[in-house]
Write a structure and sequence with these properties.
This protein has 458 residues and is mostly beta strands. It has helices at residues 130-133, 179-183, 348-353, 444-448; strands at residues 28-36, 46-51, 60-63, 67-74, 82-85, 109-115, 120-126, 139-145, 154-163, 191-194, 201-206, 209-216, 223-228, 230-237, 240-247, 252-254, 259-266, 273-280, 283-295, 323-330, 338-341, 344-347, 358-360, 372-374, 378-386, 392-396, 401-404, 410-414, 416-419, 424-431, 435-441, 452-457. The strands form 7 sheets. It has a 6-stranded mixed sheet with strand order 10-9-12-17-14-15, with no helix packed on it. Strands 23-20-25-30-27-28 form a 6-stranded mixed sheet, with no helix packed on it. Strands 11-19-18-13-16 form a 5-stranded mixed sheet, with no helix packed on it. It binds CU-O-CU linkage (C2O) and copper (II) ion (CU). The site of CU-O-CU linkage has 10 residues, from strand 5 and strand 31.
Amino acid sequence: MNLSRRSLLKSAAALAVFPTLARSAPLTLTAREGAQLIAPPGYPETDIWGFDGSVPGSPIHLKQGERVQRRLVNELPQATSVHWHGIRIDNAMDGVPGLTQEAVPSGATFDYDFIVPDAGTYWYHAHNKSVEQVARGLYGPLIVHESEAPDVGQDLVLMLDDWRLDPETAQITQDFDNGHDLSHAGRLGNLTTVNGAFDPSFPVQQNQRLRLRLVNAANARVFTVGLDGMSGWIVALDGMPLAEPIPIEDTFPLAPAQRADLLVDVLAADAETASLFSQERDGAFGLARFSVAGQAASTPRSGVRPLPPNPLPELTDINNVPRHEMRLQGGAMRWLESARIGETQLSGRELAQLGRFWALNGYAERPEDPFLDASLGSVHRIAFVNETVFPHAMHLHGHHFRLILPDGSLGPWRDTVLVERGETREIALVTDNPGNWLLHCHMLGHAASGMMSWYRVT
Ligand code: C2O
Ligand code: CU
């Protein structure tokens, strides 16, 4: 293990602390307060909001094509809702207050009931006041298993998060509407966790093959993920299998809401430790450790096969289809001169007073009319033109899309695309799922302060 990568883990001698992931959810999903050890040992427990009182919330595992039925019970002091991120879902179950349902008040319930058409790694999270509610811990894994899953020694869900805790008390700082965060990179934290625990350790064996399902549940942090003592392939992105697995030769970005499924082999020897780390500008820090005890085989496995494909629509010809531009505007150093909220044109200063710092095509709030009005089954290109000096993780509800690569060819299917500062990224999609669908930046502070739009499929 390379110690420098772990230099920020001052108390890395931390014992492994596993969150209680193993309980199987009944037919309810209760949003409520809870407390758990988030910070390193020696700190007090952190008060969180979680589904069934823990973070991550109760894991939901099922097979492709099965049905999810959960009664959301809201025991929080705020209204909430659940969005099933990445599921190509029935619109009425999408969990967006003001667009697909009303927010569920304290003390009330809402019944979610939908089919999962695709296998893969998904997640669910609160979608009301998300900048606060997700930061407090309201998210969990939704894993849809292939009928023929790859043969692995262990299948691990690793939900990455980034917390802003008071360093004295280990409590979540409540500055969710901090204007500096909103107008810059969003709410970045001071402690990262995997599955709600700081620096957890997972027992593995040398030459064991692992499936690692990475989910970035952070409000704003883009992790730059790397592996030490393990090597393998990315086999799926945002739930969708890659036709050709990508060998992991270097670090790769995982933006808020994105997922990556990895198939890796443990190369570290018996009694050594492999690790998952994030490479930041000022050094790397460890996210999780994998403590090797024993050998699964005398040599690592060789090769990998793609995961079985999901029933995505045919999308091959993107010439002669309408192209829609979405300009990402505002933020620090590119301050909005003006933008609209509804019919009203406001100056940058008026917008700032309302806590709005960003705009999508001149709107600093989800507009009355959709950005795109698409007929069912049509094909569209969307170009995200980032005029700001910050990266944005643009997410479409209801559909996956294909990236259009710089050479014009079609890249992987995703539901969230990272658009770097000053960059333009194009995507293409078949609008085959009817309804009103949100389109927004998944840096949740940006979404709360202007980067929110929608499209309609009829
Ligand atoms: Cu996970 Cu509207 O998003
Ligand atoms: Cu953004």
